[in-house]
Amino acid sequence: MSERLILYLAGKTSGNSRLEAALRDWCDRFQPGRFRLEVVDVEKWSPKSRPLPVLAVPALALGATGRMFVGDFSNIASVMTALGCLLAAS
Predict the structure, then answer these.
(1) CA angle, 16 then 81 then 67, to 5°
(2) CATH fold for domain 3-82
(3) 75, exposed or middle or buried, with CB in 10 Å at 0-12, 13-18, 19+?
(4) pTM of the predicted model as reported, rounded to 2 decimal places
């Protein structure tokens, strides 16, 4: 069973697309089958459904633990380490 990673972004920008691709690539290369990445565009979030669970974007949440990373995503391995995910390789 795969763990849920939720990536919160604001809009469809080239930077957001690169971040999503980098996260998917890292998961596929270093933790194949372990994670299921879901992308949430906060600009399309309906406040009527429930409050937005993030205050800043981009943010990445590990669904099982509720841990969240907000900040510099330039080093995906460091982001995953901060979330408490074990690395097979870096």
Answers:
(1) 75
(2) Glutaredoxin (3.40.30)
(3) exposed
(4) 0.87
